[in-house]
TrEMBL record:
This is Adenylate kinase. Monomer. PROSITE patterns: ADENYLATE_KINASE. Keywords: ATP-binding, Cytoplasm, Kinase, Nucleotide biosynthesis, Nucleotide-binding, Transferase. It catalyses: AMP + ATP = 2 ADP. The gene is adk. Consists of three domains, a large central CORE domain and two small peripheral domains, NMPbind and LID, which undergo movements during catalysis. The LID domain closes over the site of phosphoryl transfer upon ATP binding. Assembling and dissambling the active center during each catalytic cycle provides an effective means to prevent ATP hydrolysis. HAMAP family: Adenylate_kinase_Adk. It is found in: Cytoplasm. GO terms for cellular component: cytoplasm.
Amino acid sequence: MRLVLLGPPGSGKGTQATRLKDFLKVPHISTGDLLRGEVAAGTELGKQAKAVMDAGNLVSDEILLGMLESRLAQADVANGFILDGYPRNLAQADALGQLLQRIGQPMDAAVQLEVPTELLVERIAGRAKAEGRADDNPESVRKRLQVYEDSTAPVINFYKQQGRLTVVDGVGELDEVTDRLIKALAPAKA
Ligand code: AMP
């Protein structure tokens, strides 16, 4: 199963992807986690990305594509993946389509986790306390929600117009949302 999980910051993509990977038996690839790994390791890429991430802006398409390309070349991706945090704009959606075609791994499903904005802000505030992410401060959160509206929402429309989008209600208990996702993915998994 090759799944792209879409949704605004705080919609639960990361949490649900972690749960789905056990069910689907494919790795969870989070571009945010990959970038945070680079920052933590103090690499040149991490140094370039840190300030951009902390401000809530998008890291360059070129960096993201290079990072994704090497991740998708690893052996554990042979049976598929859950992609979380990519694509975040139309150029990335286009690049992803081309990359997947090139490696012969076309996408099976694009799923949008839908959560109202008020709830997103509340959830991110909760996560800020629990995890202490540098970009979970109010200013950066506002910026990330704005970037989502401006750059990532068009990606949702792009997949919708192609008839490839499945929308799943992301409000409720974690188990409930996981069950909804599993039901929504059943046709693509079969
Ligand atoms: P996330 O953990 O997915 O919320 O990502 C955290 C931050 O990493 C984002 O706010 C961006 O600065 C950066 N990032 C993650 N994925 C991407 C992407 N596909 N394109 C550009 N920047 C990204």
